[in-house]
Design a protein that fits this description.
258 residues; alpha+beta; 5-stranded antiparallel beta sheet; 5-stranded mixed beta sheet; globular
Length: 258
């Protein structure tokens, strides 16, 4: 009976492996498979798409998890990104990085100090950030909190995972087009550098400093990772020309703070 049970178990395992890795899986005896496992040489079929590192621009505020797969427009080479904005108007660009290879990919963000063909400091217009993973209340590891790149400008994307680059754009320069050239350079292999080119198409109108809008200030909550950072949270509104925020549920004018 034990022999029959083992035979059935082996057949069930074979069927599951074929379903997971395809019908063309090379047949291997159980003894050979066990020997391979003990020796650490067993080959496992990869579920990584083509084993490539892909990139794509995605809509702002798209809900992304570390396991989000590449979109239809993801490619090894990122096309030039054009951002249209008014003077003194803050816009942003979000770039998804998909590591479909078997290895952790580590890149160094290398950027031009100046706008292409000029002596305008790129830091006067562009600010590079990344979305770091954190566990939400549903148990999903999402990419949300935005932080500036570390001091070494290093971006790490583990095998099979997704990361986000976030680039803020804001300028009060004269209307015109301003191109900034940067690249992701691998620090772990001789992979080709991946250029990131962003052109700001600055329009001939200026966003006023104060829009005169009054909005509710939801979050960050005291029990969250942003505890004691409420003033910094409110200060973000000023970047979007919102200078009055509601401090409680009653919409009376006296409950707004500048």
């Amino acid at each position: 009976d034990l022999k029959i049970f083992r035979e059935i178990s082996h057949k069930m395992l074979e069927a599951l492996l074929k379903k997971a890795f395809g019908k063309n899986m090379k047949k291997q005896s159980l003894k050979e498979r066990n020997r391979s496992r003990k020796a650490g040489t067993e080959k496992v079929a990869s579920d990584k798409t083509d084993g490539k590192f892909l990139m794509e621009q995605i809509p702002l505020f798209t809900r992304m998890e570390i396991s989000t797969p590449p979109g239809a427009k993801a490619a090894e080479k990122l096309p030039e990104i054009v951002v249209s904005a008014g003077r003194n108007d803050k816009e942003s660009v979000c770039i998804a990085l998909y590591n479909q290879t078997q290895d952790t990919q580590i890149f160094r963000w290398e950027e031009s100090d100046f706008i292409d063909g000029s002596k305008i400091p790129a830091s006067d217009i562009f600010t590079v950030k990344e979305a770091v993973p954190w566990l939400d209340r549903m148990g999903r590891t999402v990419l949300e909190p935005l932080v500036k790149l570390n001091e070494a400008n290093i971006i790490t994307v583990p095998s099979g995972e997704t990361r986000l680059l976030w680039i803020d754009v804001k300028s009060d320069l004269p209307a015109g087009k301003y191109t900034w050239k940067s690249s992701l350079v691998s620090t772990v292999n001789k992979d080709k550098s991946r250029p990131v080119v962003i052109t700001l198409d600055l329009q001939n109108w200026r966003m006023p400093d104060d829009l005169g809008l009054m909005v509710s200030a939801y979050g960050p909550y005291k029990f969250s990772w942003a505890k004691n950072k409420i003033k910094a949270y409110w200060a973000l509104c000023a970047d979007y020309h919102i200078n009055w925020i509601q401090l409680n549920e009653r919409p009376a004018l006296k409950n707004f703070k500048k």
